């Protein structure tokens, strides 16, 4: 039987930051199916296309965890959270949680972001190692995702 790798979604306009996060996930020995979107608009469209994505990825949609940047074009992280909160009420993604992944350390942004009950953590880019990431991810979700 094929082992199912729980799905996650990385939303970040910076390709290098997405690459670094994927490398840290691999170093942490977390076996995940990874979707990537370059801004909040792309990510919302991806999530809104629920039925088609569920058919295309029967064991890998919807994501259980979203890594979300704040500063992005079109729809930024804070705008995404507001729209995501509405979306969670109409499609089957209420078990999906968000982990912020940003270079911003502004307290006023953190306060707005952490007011959403589905946001389970805040990682500052470049300030953590693979083991820290693993600990944060495992505490945010309750699905076994470690490799052997």
Automatic annotation (TrEMBL):
Keyword Endoplasmic reticulum carried by entry: no
Alphabetic keyword roster: Phosphoprotein
Modified residues (4-aspartylphosphate): 69
PANTHER family the UniProt entry points to: RESPONSE REGULATOR RCP1 (PTHR44520:SF2), RESPONSE REGULATOR RCP1-RELATED (PTHR44520)
Protein name: Chemotaxis protein CheY
Keyword Phosphoprotein: yes
InterPro entries from the UniProt entry: CheY-like_superfamily, Sig_transdc_resp-reg_receiver, TCS_response_regulator
Origin: domain of life: Bacteria
Native species: Pseudoalteromonas fuliginea
Domain Response regulatory: residue ranges: 7-140
